[in-house]
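Please, structure for the following, as tokens.
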Amino acid sequence: MEQLIIPSLQQTTNSNRIYSYPLLRYMGSKYKLIPWIHETLRSFHFDSAFDAFSGSGVVSFLLKSMNKKVYSNDFLNFSSVISKAVIENKSDHLDKNDLSNLLDMNVNSDNFIQKTFGQVFYSKNDLIFLDKVSHNILNLTSPYKQALAYTALFRSCLKKQPRGVFTISGNLDKYNDGRRDLRLSIRQHFLEQVTIYNDTVFDNGKENASFNLNVFDFSQKMFKPDLVYMDPPYVPPSDDNCYIKRYHFLEGLSKYWQGEEIMEHTKVKKIKKKFTPFSYRKTAIEAFEQMFDKFSESTLVLSYSSNAYPDLETLISIMKNHKSNVDVRTKPHQYHFGNHSTVSRSKVNEYLIIGLD
């Protein structure tokens, strides 16, 4: 039996948890900005918060660590699974018996991943493992244990993929720089990630919740948060900013591609793109207007970047239509993920645009 470390009963204080969240390579992640975001948010009084575009889950985890009641949401299923595992979940861990069942390779499972992604991503043994463990996850009785296992699997797949995105396929030897992540099998990664994500689970004394909805589908009948944190997809100046393009494999894996349309003509077997109005110039401004109006009774905190559309002045103007006081916090930042080190647009100003009454 492989070693599995279960968290000790000795509680880590929540304030110390804030910076222990596993780094998930994710486009636009605020992982490195968490100290700044934390410093900003703790200056406001609020008991509940809605993270409207949770992505990697790092800001939701910050809010949970601040002992807030957290509503975490993303329109991508795999992101909502992550927040179910580490935000909504307060006590379920994967134990040694769970791990034994998850690693049972003798089960009669489907071989969809092997058939679909052979010669596209990963080795044959890795693909077989993904088929088997996907089957076994669904046999876990707790939805939180299922979410934890999926989350460990997502990070395993990202670590094994050379650039952390699923836009490249086939022979990836040119990306093999000898790093440990590329040497390990997905099974080996999974064993490590189960231990890591077990350690993220804690109870902050609140009934937190995870959602997989369009942000415009929420109503005040569902909940009325004191603060709404918004980090929508950015409209880039020129290139594509599609999350499905980069993470389609994880989105498909999160539901074993049920209900997803695979674009068979693409080399990487992408799934059909999911529309969000925040990603297009012709719809972004109206989308911000509607979102600010929907949550106008809450404190608004918009995270945005200087290299995106619309610009800061426009966003301030839109927020002033709904809030009497608008404040802006600015922090220089350099993105390394997805950009060549010489690309000037990787150096930006990050904004927190705050709307108060």
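The two ends are 57 Å apart (CA to CA). Residues 1-12, 338-345 have pLDDT under 50 and may be disordered.
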